[in-house]
């Protein structure tokens, strides 16, 4: 009798697990993506600064070629770069801005950021964008190890749901 009960429990468990597989598979549009970005300056730069910091503002345009057509297209950004002059031979810089990526059935709109190394020889960048049009309700997160290298492999995730809540914590309060 005990064997029969264990067999029934095992059968019920297997049916429940197999029944769950289709519901997990329905979320099949959430996907990891890889590709490349070919970027260039798309207009004039403006510069401000003083003896401790330099601010530059400039538009960029990137051609995104990814293995998912939803995130392939033309991306336009308005970037601000702040470089803090230090005692070392190189400056510490941070970049941030807005980004808009036009896909075939909608647009991705969000923010972009970067913290390059002290030599400014590479430009790692990330962005988080919310979908519009056919992409409404979806989020696209992307990272590239070097936005200045068109052969650098970028990667990202497209998922259904809101972006991370980090914008609510900005601007950061000064450290005490």
Structure explained in plain terms:
This protein is mainly β and 176 residues long. The chain has a single domain (33-163), classed as Beta Barrel (AOC barrel-like). The chain has one helix at 2-25; strands at 31-41, 46-49, 53-66, 73-84, 92-102, 107-114, 125-131, 138-144, 154-160. An 8-stranded antiparallel barrel has the order 1-3-4-5-6-7-8-9. Mean pLDDT is 80; it is low at 1-28.
Using brief descriptors, characterize the structure shown:
176 residues, mainly beta, AOC barrel-like, 1 helix, 9 strands, elongated, disordered N terminus
Number of domains: 1
* CATH topology tier name: AOC barrel-like
Q: How would you state the average pLDDT, rounded? A: 80
Poorly predicted parts? 1-28
Question: What is the 3D shape?
Answer: elongated
What topology, given as strand order, has the largest sheet? Answer: 1-3-4-5-6-7-8-9
CATH class identity: Mainly Beta
Q: Give me the CATH architecture, please.
A: Beta Barrel
Q: Main β-sheet: number of strands, strand sense, barrel status?
A: 8 strands, antiparallel, barrel
Radius of gyration: 23 Å
Helix/strand-derived category reads mainly beta
């Amino acid at each position: 009798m005990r064997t029969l009960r264990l067999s029934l429990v095992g059968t019920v468990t297997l049916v429940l697990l197999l029944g769950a597989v289709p519901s997990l598979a329905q979320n099949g549009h959430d996907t990891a993506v890889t590709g490349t970005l070919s970027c260039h300056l798309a207009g004039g730069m403006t510069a401000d600064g003083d003896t401790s910091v330099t601010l530059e503002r400039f538009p960029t345009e990137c051609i995104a070629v990814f293995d998912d057509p939803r995130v392939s297209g033309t991306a336009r950004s308005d970037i601000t770069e702040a470089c803090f002059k230090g005692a070392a031979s190189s400056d510490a810089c941070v970049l941030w801005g807005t980004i808009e990526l036009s896909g075939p059935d909608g647009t991705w709109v969000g923010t972009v950021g970067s913290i390059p190394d002290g030599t400014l020889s590479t430009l790692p960048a990330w962005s988080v964008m919310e979908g519009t049009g056919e992409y409404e309700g979806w989020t696209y997160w992307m990272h590239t190890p070097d936005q200045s290298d068109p052969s650098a492999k970028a990667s990202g995730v497209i998922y259904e749901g809101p972006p991370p809540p980090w914008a609510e914590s900005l601007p950061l309060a000064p450290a005490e």
